[in-house]
UniProtKB/TrEMBL annotation:
This is cinnamyl-alcohol dehydrogenase. Keywords: Lignin biosynthesis, Metal-binding, NADP, Oxidoreductase, Zinc. PROSITE patterns: ADH_ZINC (PS00059). Residues 107-216 form the Alcohol dehydrogenase-like N-terminal domain. Homodimer. It comes from Digitaria exilis. One of its GO terms (biological process) is lignin biosynthetic process.
Length: 424
């Protein structure tokens, strides 16, 4: 990975010596996307690792306009001294991924999230070829002149976005994730107009302001999902005071986001209750993840008798439509529910469910650079990582099929450096 110095802002243990890319679910019926940190590695190395380069403003290149054809864009990139990269990309709405050679420049770009909906063009905004990936972990291989935050050999991460305007009120307060001009990591459009390429590749170039330092002791493959899923639940817990020992936290949904929310809640010293439609997840929630209680949301009597008005807050991670009135009944007066899943149908919110108890419903979209760094430090201190299944690149299309069936516990992680070349 290469990081660049911003032209307009100054802003351990069992470490796995390889690059890890994670497929992670962030929005509603979206899949868990493959997110990886791509960096060059030495062919003769015993255990190839991801590399990150850092570039200075003088190396920032003007990008071709979006209206140019894919071929013209790539030709322009080559002419402007791009870094050769090997990745896997979807060429059309089938969403099938295959090897793809392209050129990466020292850009600070990325403006649309990539997931199953993008590679299959469900939203009509895919810019093929699409190289997925927005949860990325790797090792810095090079830094450009002027870069001060990182050096070669540092273990780092890149999350959901790689740039923002840096001049609006939101950015000035440190909430880059809510900037109207936020630039996402994959299938995005940089300010010059070219499409961004995500983490399914062997190299990535990133502005140093949007690069995260991975603490010693965190395993790379278990850390990558934290850069999107982890901070998505951590940041609202911090913002709404759902991080105090003794408080009662409800976690709705035990998937990619939910299982990490349980881990953070227990590390904060909270009582944690998992709420799920699947009774079969009880043992996983309590025996493996350490939750204190488990409720079946379809069992109205159990929900009413066991937990009415007992919770200080709820993190709702479910991406499918579901009734939220029964969930709001679980909150104490002045309790807060935070929605981090994005169902494809509007949720129903009767005023009687919130007004009498002064209850609140808020949303949350990932977290800022500062939020993500703080989350990583907390995870490092408490040994928190996602539950993952590590796969090789040549398994990625099968993994996507499994993701559509929700057949993963809880994240796929792609060993990019260890399998990209052979898969191609």
């Amino acid at each position: 990975m290469t990081t660049t110095k911003p032209p307009h802002a100054e802003h351990g243990g069992n470490r796995v010596p390889r690059a890890a890319a994670v497929m992670s679910h962030h929005f509603h019926a979206l899949i868990r996307n493959p997110f990886l940190l791509s960096v060059p590695f030495s062919p003769g190395a015993a255990a190839p690792s991801l590399g990150v380069s850092v570039a200075s403003p003088s190396r920032a290149l003007r990008l071709p306009r979006a209206r140019a054809s894919v071929e013209k864009r790539e030709q322009a990139m080559e002419e402007q001294g791009g870094v050769a990269a090997l990745g896997w990309a979807a060429r059309d709405a089938t969403g099938v991924l295959s090897p793809y050679n392209f050129s990466r420049r020292c850009s600070t770009a990325g403006s649309a999230t990539f997931d199953l909906h993008i590679i299959k063009n469900d939203w009509g905004n895919a810019m093929y070829p699409v190289v997925p990936g927005h949860e990325i972990v790797g090792v810095v291989t090079d830094v450009a002149p002027g870069v001060t935050k990182f050096k070669a050999g540092d273990t780092v991460g890149v999350g959901y976005f790689v740039d923002s305007c840096r001049s609006c009120d939101t950015c000035s307060k440190g909430y880059e994730n809510y900037c109207a001009g936020v630039v996402l990591t994959s299938n995005g459009v940089v300010h010059g107009g070219a499409a961004t390429k995500g983490g399914f590749s062997d190299v990535i170039v990133v502005d140093e302001h949007y690069v995260l330092r991975v603490p010693e002791g965190l395993q790379l493959e278990r850390t990558a999902p934290l850069l999107c899923a982890g901070v998505t639940v951590y940041s609202p817990m911090m913002r709404h005071g759902l991080n105090e020992p003794g408080k009662h936290l409800g976690v709705v949904g035990l998937g990619g986001l939910g299982h990490v929310a349980v881990k953070f809640g227990k590390a904060f010293g909270m009582k944690v209750t998992v709420i799920s439609t699947s009774p079969s997840k009880r043992d996983e929630a309590i025996d493996h993840l350490g939750a204190d209680e488990f409720l079946v949301s379809r069992d109205a009597e159990q929900m009413k008798q066991a937990a009415t008005a007992t919770m200080d807050g709820i993190i709702d991670t479910v991406s499918a439509w579901h009734p939220i009135t029964p969930l709001l009944a679980l909150l104490k007066p002045l309790g807060q529910m935070v929605v981090v899943g994005v169902p494809n149908k509007p949720l129903e919110l009767p005023v009687y469910a919130i007004v009498p108890g002064g209850k609140g419903v808020a949303g949350n979209s990932v977290g800022s650079v500062g939020d993500c760094q703080a989350m990583l430090e907390f995870a490092g201190k408490h040994g928190i990582g996602a539950e993952v299944e590590v796969i090789k690149m040549d398994y990625v299309n099968t993994a996507i099929e499994r993701l559509e069936k929700n057949d993963v516990r809880y994240r796929f992680v792609i060993d990019v450096a260890g399998s990209l070349g052979s898969a191609a």
